[in-house]
What we know:
The chain has 143 residues and is of the alpha+beta class. The chain has one domain (11-136): CATH 3.30.1330.40. It contains 3 helices and 7 strands. Helix content is 24%, strand content 30%. Residues 1-10 have low confidence and may be disordered.
Amino acid sequence: MAGGRSEVRHGVGVSGGRQRISSGGPWEVTAGYSRAIVVGDSCWVAGTTDAGPDGRSDHPGDVAAQARAAFAIIERALGEAGFTLDDVVRTRMFVVDIGDAAAVSAAHGEVFRTTRPAATLVAVAGLMDPSLLVEIEAEARRG
């Protein structure tokens, strides 16, 4: 234990009413964050990319494939936390090229066509690795 929090490398950890979901991603330990955090009936999924174990995109140059992969990772994290995509109330999407907005929005629409959470898409100067074109985060609520 460090700082009163349980240490979890992969999977689920619970400490002080807070449930941590870890995907074992390359930056979780270094940057000190979890893939998702659950407190009560709420779940926050951290910014998610399609980065593989080496920190580079598994779909270099294909922003739509990167977005779909990020949504699949988000869905897995939500599932581990006891939530579904239908519980998502807010998403944020970050692209490095605003010209990719339509492709990322289309992938978002494939996943959330009926749920239709509040959503934001913004262009940013860059992500953790130049091969990463999109990063997505989500918030979910039960009930």
